[in-house]
């Protein structure tokens, strides 16, 4: 059966429109944000379920973006001031959303003093932060490690007193191995709860010095 010119043009138009429509669908539902190939959602889900790609990575990014993960200290001190305690309470509220997740707290100092002394001081600062998180209802076994970098990783390189360097940093470190949702690979339950919790208004951080830009003491 021969087609008229009008029919042929109509078929060509439909074909072109279909190609453009497919080209316009540049994001497959469920795929990783930075991917571009069709089928990435299946690959991403498989890698997460088999442990080859940890959901902890994206949680770590969220924690760093949504929570004041760094607190600061007075010179030669590991006492928590009002701002530090307020920031740790916000951390604790976020941590409670994910009972499967573990955290590490890293202690730091400025460059004043010996390496040995500062390593001990950094550890005391990390322990002070951990103890406060425990007082807010976080289980000790979820705080996977307390680590001190002492003065080896300054934010600002100066031999003088620098408050920004006197800090602890809380980070997501992984998952509790014995937790049932982790043992059974039920990461979807964690992710679903993540979406539900995201609808809850964020805790107000009024009065908290997130970056620790206060003057040195």
From TrEMBL:
- Where does the OmpA-like domain start and stop, copy by copy? 60-176
Superkingdom per UniProt: Bacteria
CC terms in the record's Gene Ontology section: cell outer membrane
What SUPFAM superfamilies does its record include?
OmpA-like
Which keywords fit this entry according to its UniProt record?
Answer: Cell outer membrane, Membrane
In terms of Gene3D superfamilies, this protein maps to: OmpA-like domain (3.30.1330.60)
UniProt cross-references to InterPro entries, sorted A to Z: Bact_OuterMem_StrucFunc, OMP_bac, OmpA-like, OmpA-like_sf
Compartments where located: Cell outer membrane
The record ties this protein, via PANTHER family, to: LIPOPROTEIN YIAD-RELATED (PTHR30329:SF21), STATOR ELEMENT OF FLAGELLAR MOTOR COMPLEX (PTHR30329)
> Any idea what this protein is called?
OmpA family protein
Question: Which species does the entry assign this protein to?
Answer: Halocynthiibacter halioticoli
């Amino acid at each position: 059966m021969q087609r008229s010119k009008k029919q042929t043009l109509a078929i060509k138009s439909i074909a072109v429109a279909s190609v453009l429509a497919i080209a316009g669908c540049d994001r497959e539902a469920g795929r990783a944000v930075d991917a571009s190939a069709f089928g990435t959602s299946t690959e991403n889900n498989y890698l997460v379920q088999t442990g080859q790609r940890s959901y902890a990575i994206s949680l770590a990014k969220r924690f760093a973006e949504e929570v004041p993960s760094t607190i600061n200290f007075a010179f030669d001190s590991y006492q928590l001031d009002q701002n530090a305690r307020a920031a740790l309470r916000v951390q604790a509220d976020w941590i409670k959303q994910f009972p499967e997740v573990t955290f590490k707290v890293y202690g730091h100092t400025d460059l004043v003093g010996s390496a040995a002394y500062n390593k001990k001081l950094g550890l005391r600062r990390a322990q002070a932060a951990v103890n406060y998180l425990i007082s807010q209802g976080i289980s000790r076994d979820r705080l996977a490690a307390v680590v001190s970098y002492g003065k080896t990783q300054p934010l600002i390189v100066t031999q003088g007193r620098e408050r920004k360097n006197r800090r602890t940093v809380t980070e997501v470190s992984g998952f509790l191995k014995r937790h049932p949702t982790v043992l059974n690979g039920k990461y979807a339950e964690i992710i679903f709860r993540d979406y539900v919790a995201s609808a809850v208004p964020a805790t107000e951080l009024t009065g908290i010095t997130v970056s620790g830009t206060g003057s040195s003491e």
